[in-house]
């Protein structure tokens, strides 16, 4: 009798916030997880927290030329990839006319082009297994106008489109592709801005039917659902996890 291989996931941006919560949930469920990001110290701290099922590998997703080597390195060391969570993301708050071409390109590179490049390399491996699960972390900014985050909104809307296009092409080959659209989640990306601005914090809470912000663990739970067999007939969806933000207020 051969032992069943433990499932392996890559979580980009897994050293902090939402990515760390997703990695934590996966490890809790017995999944082996490779967390990737630029900040080695933060990755190492996350690895220490999550234990032996977690491996930390430095990777700047905007270095597109390095992505094939990163993915191959993961496969060589830990085996085929079953789950990819494209979570790494960047935002920039600026007035529309202040956004430079470089600003715009940088956000699109991190949030969209790198997601495509990482997915392509992992999908090559998943096609050999005729199985796999990809989860993109989108945002409610994909669907709803939020001022001063023009490139971010454009990148996340494109992620939703890419989710559906990937799903129709890859699902017949055994690879499910879904996205999660978080609402206001308490993480590094939001905490500093909100903690220093109680008025804005009250506005955010007021705009959310459930009257509060989400926690990274809420996204961890949703990612685990999408990655698990409970979602084996789910593909091509963008799942809002937003306390009701997307239904109005
Ligand atoms: P964080 O700032 O905590 O996390 C962002 C993560 O992305 C960090 O771990 C960072 O790691 C990683 N990252 C950024 N750039 C790169 C890069 N070039 N290469 C590799 N890793 C990178 O924020 P969140 O946890 O909130 O964000 C996670 C995702 O959730 C993002 O895609 C964001 O757009 C999305 N989201 C968040 C919402 C919220 O309210 N918080 C709402 C909607 C969506 P490092 O610095 O080490 O590279």
TrEMBL record:
Ranges of residues in domain Ketoreductase: 7-183
Family of this protein: Belongs to the short-chain dehydrogenases/reductases (SDR) family.
Keywords for this protein: Oxidoreductase
Annotated InterPro entries: KR_dom, NAD(P)-bd_dom_sf, Sc_DH/Rdtase_CS, SDR_fam
Any one Gene Ontology molecular-function term assigned to this protein's record: oxidoreductase activity
Keyword Oxidoreductase applies: yes
One Pfam match: adh_short_C2
Protein name: NAD(P)-dependent dehydrogenase, short-chain alcohol dehydrogenase family
Cross-referenced SUPFAM superfamilies: NAD(P)-binding Rossmann-fold domains
Lineage start: Bacteria, Pseudomonadati, Bacteroidota, Chitinophagia, Chitinophagales
Domain of life: Bacteria
CDD domains attached to this UniProt entry: SDR_c
